[in-house]
Fold these 2 entries.
Entry 1:
Amino acid sequence: MRICLIGAGNLATQLGLALLEKGHQVVQVWSRTQKSAAELAFKLRCPFTTELPLISSENDLYIIAVSDTAIGSVLSQRTWDDTMVVHTAGSTPMSILAPYCKNFGVFYPFQTFTIGKRVEFEHVPVCIEANTSQNLDVLKKLAHSISQNVKLFDSTQRQQIHLAAVFACNFVNHLYAIGEELLQEKGIGFEILKPLILETAAKIVDQSPVNSQTGPAVRNDKTVIDKHLALLAHHPDLKNLYRQISERIIQTHK
Amino acid sequence: MRICLIGAGNLATQLGLALLEKGHQVVQVWSRTQKSAAELAFKLRCPFTTELPLISSENDLYIIAVSDTAIGSVLSQRTWDDTMVVHTAGSTPMSILAPYCKNFGVFYPFQTFTIGKRVEFEHVPVCIEANTSQNLDVLKKLAHSISQNVKLFDSTQRQQIHLAAVFACNFVNHLYAIGEELLQEKGIGFEILKPLILETAAKIVDQSPVNSQTGPAVRNDKTVIDKHLALLAHHPDLKNLYRQISERIIQTHK
């Protein structure tokens, strides 16, 4: 397909590279800033622009890969004719596209994308939705060309999936950062936590996490919990967080 | 070494199997309950007892692998003579052993142990501490016989390591469980979260987690955050947790 990428962040970059690798043509890249537009265009060997009205109309598909808040503004800055337009956002309903486009949908690769870390798309779940069954077929084909894991979800389900991911990915990563912070305080390197973090994640492949909970809270071990709360005396925010999550674990396993 | 294992939980089981595999002799197993003592003794092909005073004295080492709260009671139930005694607890100082034993230390394998999931000890950090340098040498040798990753930490450091692990492992696992819970509510299988969970963990191998934070909070994306808080209206505990962790991410990255 001839694709125009609107956005040049982590998702746009990884998705663009995956599409190119699978033989699609990224015709043009747009970004608000010249620098990021030029950088991604260089990686994808295509022209770029920072002016939405100047985007070429010679495409089969526009992929809007900007933050949820920017989607509305991007949509209002040009006319989209008959060409299909998709956004890539978890928590924005497909209906946001309806006032602007005739053929539209959502193409949501469900993964965490970080600068400089290439993601193998093959196993990334791609959640799709479209306004007609014909458009859904187009997106299905595109999704299958880059991933073996294509899922059909409506906007309500997708929003819940995104919410679940905030807990199980974004918040999890922040807990890793808290672990690193606590070790640094005593001059201990983060290295020691790595085998534990990897094993904790690996366990979910075969076991429901609720069945493999370990630690002082699931044993309701007040002695250890109180020791930890005392250690956190100088971190009221962490103390509060520790108490709250422990309480929820205790309630869940009671 | 001729080792007596006191305790028959997840840690005692995995440690016993690893020791056996590396040619040590588990002479005897003790547990409070007949059933768990017999089960572990069967796995380790050795006798068992449920009476602490009846444990044989023909050992080179006693390993106390019971919960933090039970260590004191175990120690007080027999005399330990000159034989070396170690406990395996993260948050209990080595000094708990001093009133009861002459040769003592701590042998703390830093990993999450779950029933039925065998752990490869080779890369598990084993944190050791002992009351004399001679005893430390004994523990060093033992630790090196099962792991390539042996670390010397004192009780204060070990306690902080354990605290960091509660955030980065036990609490993380509960966030996985919350993710599963939220998906179940909308009839969506946990399967879809697995690639994301594994990638989030994999990122820490090469990057500090604070540098690879993604999600609405690090972008301070109030639109998405407000949508998620609205979705959590019927879960006041999760709404509170969502707000708190998001706020901490926003503060960290401001």
Note: Chain A touches chain B through 95 residues (CB under 8 Å).
Entry 2:
Amino acid sequence: MDMPTKTDITKLRVNGQRLWDSLMELAQIGATEKGGVCRLTLTDLDKQGRDLVTRWAREAGMTVTVDKIGNVFMRRAGRSNMPPIMTGSHIDTQPTGGKFDGNYGVLAGIEVVRTLNDHGIETEAPIEVAFWTNEEGSRFVPVMMGSGVFAKAFTLEHAYAATDTEGKTVKGELARIGYIGEQEPGDHPIGAYFETHIEQGPVLEDHDKTIGVVTGVLGIRWYDCVVTGMEAHAGPTPMALRKDALQVAAKLMQEVVACAHRHPPHGRGTVGMVQVHPNSRNVIPGRVKFSIDLRNATDALCEAMDADIRAVAAKLSAESGLSIEITPVSAYPAQPFHADCIAAVQKAADTLGYSNMRAVSGAGHDAVYMARLAPAGMIFIPCKDGISHNEIEDAQPAHIEAGCNVLLQAMLERAG
Amino acid sequence: MDMPTKTDITKLRVNGQRLWDSLMELAQIGATEKGGVCRLTLTDLDKQGRDLVTRWAREAGMTVTVDKIGNVFMRRAGRSNMPPIMTGSHIDTQPTGGKFDGNYGVLAGIEVVRTLNDHGIETEAPIEVAFWTNEEGSRFVPVMMGSGVFAKAFTLEHAYAATDTEGKTVKGELARIGYIGEQEPGDHPIGAYFETHIEQGPVLEDHDKTIGVVTGVLGIRWYDCVVTGMEAHAGPTPMALRKDALQVAAKLMQEVVACAHRHPPHGRGTVGMVQVHPNSRNVIPGRVKFSIDLRNATDALCEAMDADIRAVAAKLSAESGLSIEITPVSAYPAQPFHADCIAAVQKAADTLGYSNMRAVSGAGHDAVYMARLAPAGMIFIPCKDGISHNEIEDAQPAHIEAGCNVLLQAMLERAG
């Protein structure tokens, strides 16, 4: 078969039904009663999932290699041996996970290859589809383990030593399921990396858009905050003589949200966890500990939010006379995606006529680590009510197909 | 010995050192390493305490009777057989209790009798000192059990059936320690009731006053409040699309305090207990449950605070679109004390030259139930830092003596 002309390539479309069917078939492995999937990393079910996806890859003519942390690379050769244009995600799930989180990104890559095969299209650069070990982090920490080792965010030994609640190690479980490969993680050049994913948030649905052109992943700052007052009996202590830690904490909790609003459009501020001491109905709280989660699109903005909330806390402490301690727990830098990759996704979405908008990712993805190694970008599609990490996670077949078409076009633009 | 003249009576003073020594001796029974007392109701230690106090009463020439709920009445005969002028409190303690809570009120009564004996003073009405079973409620609920049965706030059978964590009943434990009497609770007329007590709050200390002339006990309204939003991932969910239950709850928590300030001078509002769901660092809270404790000096003011907080909650719910449910948990009516008893305490404090102020009790006392049966009043003395229900609870010997002198004068005024 002759190469299609450039005009022909932009008319290429994936087989949405075939992609959907593959997603549903993979979702049978670890299927839950409520329609979700429980396929924790490095379990027997994960092995079944890995075996199925790699069988599909081989059936599509791809070669399969595995690295020492169990990342799997499924390669369709190019005309040249230049670094591959890669896509991928993960196939492990949360304990109460859905059918789409991660799995969609991997099977969209397989569908891109199947589509290229259908039309006999060769690319200059090889096309690779990867699935990364333990993205979810629900059985072993850290999260995004496979891509993190690959990007040298932490060492292979650190990852190997991680244990689950039963004391089983990552290394032992990788060996047990037969997915401990020979390849040194990261010893694998990449031309560019794209990842399709359900948004896991409500923005696209709210704006009624099919495609999110992801410009980057928000930086995250986590803190613990402790407000210390004086516990006292709620009855005999008049209002003027109280040192009520919860009342000061409540003000600061609202300032966490106000701080996010002061750093638009991507500033986010959340208090998710609260512990009140002694937590008794008729005792004025003497100590309140709560979490602060601040996010923004650049490290400079994260830094500005850090300074903002600390200044507000100092002011509240001075006004109330109560002590307020803010302790950093962890920080993840913001990761802007590569302008060329963003442009490729944007162009594909526009060319295909899909309604779209720029978006940021508030959650981490394997693409964050890949962006340290190569130009990277992401494609979001809506998920129902923005819900993910939940068995009721859902996405529309039309969106699934659209995101894969964007992936196809963006990869072809980079692969030549 | 001849009766002293009326002038002589106002010059009568108790023996402060003897009262202090008795307090310290009683505090040895169940003494804790940190200087507190753990003498839970109806334990072997409680029996030892009861035996010691009744021995002292008999040594002071008093007759001792016990009712079916174990309330103990120690009587010094009067010239007539009219209803006695009574004082009392309790000798059971919290698990980490102090030396003064309750015990002071009982031993101050004994000291009044000892002082009358020292001076050979007869009274027209009999003088009685009572200690009431299980005021603290830490082993068996309800609290203020003995005085509650006596005042027919609930039945003897209800009290008898209460069990501790080991399944032991009040009736069984009363019988075991030998304090289940013959007398029908409440079948015991009372002329007037006074109770001396440490304040258990910081007001007297803050105002540098020796005596609090207690005008009444605050009414209490307890509620559970549930704010329901929508839990969502803290990363992918932009501020504008959140239904953050904790942020709405934080506003309402501050309104609980504002509501107290809107109903001065005795309005009190406390949020002591908070549960956040799912209480995870990176999840926007979907549901927050918290307690509300509102208090004020009259039932009408408690009712006004109820209406106030419900109106504020309705407004917050309408503004935020989140559901707010406020459910009453329990309510205790306000209990103003009798004008004559308040006046007797006031006159005694003034005559004795003690610095004093009007005060309200924010916590419950046996006097609350007694006030349903007879004219009643209370005398507060300061406690260090307002701390009670704690092993470091402390009071000054000079205040202990002063409160007892006020009790003596107030009882003599009523007893004639």
Note: Chain B has a mean pLDDT of 95.
